[in-house]
Design goal:
By secondary structure, this protein is an alpha+beta fold. The protein has one helix at 2-23, and strands at residues 31-42, 50-55, 61-66, 77-83, 91-94. A five-stranded antiparallel β-sheet has the order 3-2-1-4-5, with no helix packed on it.
Length: 100
């Protein structure tokens, strides 16, 4: 019985470590795309966070919550980094100031 409990605990630890490993956000974006800023909103109580709605190249609109500079305005271009993950949804974030 003791061996089964130890094996179960080790198995649970391995599964949790695997989930942690696959849930991590990569240090660098896998893909960087240029998107148009559509709308900006301040996050209430967000301490500087903003909700930025961007339109990607295919017409898809995406809402990104980020600590972004306040000089973004609707119509501006921004670089959006796509951080691809294996088991979990991809993460989108503004990766640089603006694009001319």
């Amino acid at each position: 019985m003791k061996k089964q409990q130890i094996f179960g605990a080790v198995l649970v630890a391995v599964v949790l470590c695997g989930l942690w490993w696959f849930s991590r956000i990569p240090a660098k974006p896998s893909i960087t795309v240029v998107a148009e800023v559509v709308k900006l909103e301040d996050v209430p109580g967000g301490k500087g966070k903003r909700l930025i709605t961007v339109r990607l190249g295919g017409g898809q609109e995406m809402m990104i919550e980020t600590l972004a500079p306040f000089f973004f305005k609707p119509g501006y271009k921004a670089k959006v980094g796509i951080f691809e993950r294996t088991l979990f949804p991809d993460v989108y974030d503004i990766v640089s100031d603006s694009v001319d």
